[in-house]
Predict the 3D structure of the following.
Amino acid sequence: MIVRYMLLAESVVQDIQTSWVSIFNVMDAIRPQGFPVLIQKCSVLVALTKEAHDPVRVDCAVSLTMGGNELARLPVTVDFQDKLKNNTIMQLLGLVIPGPGELVATFYQNDVPLESTVFLVEAAAPLAGVQVVQTQR
C-alpha cells in the first residue's frame, strides 16, 4: 500500500457520486492564542493506492503524537473493494494539544508505520488590541 498524501483539516467530505474530495481549513500549521488548546473538530485524510500484493481489506491506524506522547489513535479498516485507490477520512471530535512543538501524524498498516507527516504547532502572535465593531439600527 502506498500513502499518496495525508493531511489534517477542520473538515473533509467526499462526494458519493464523483468521489471528489472537498477539504475545508487545512491545518498545515496550528497557531492558537494559548496552550493547552482544544481543537474541537479535526479530520484526517489519507489517500492510498493499493499495490498488486495488497489484500482488499487492511487493518490500519493513524496516530497523532507530540514529543513521543500519543494524543490520539484512530483505528480503521481500509477497504479497497475492487478499486486501486482509496480515500480514508477519519473525524476526531476533540483533540487537546498540550503545547507548542511538532504534531506528528503517522499512518500504520498492521502496526507497521508507512508514512509520517509533521505539522508545526506554535503560539500565535499576541493580539495587538481589541477591535470594536458597532452597528446602529
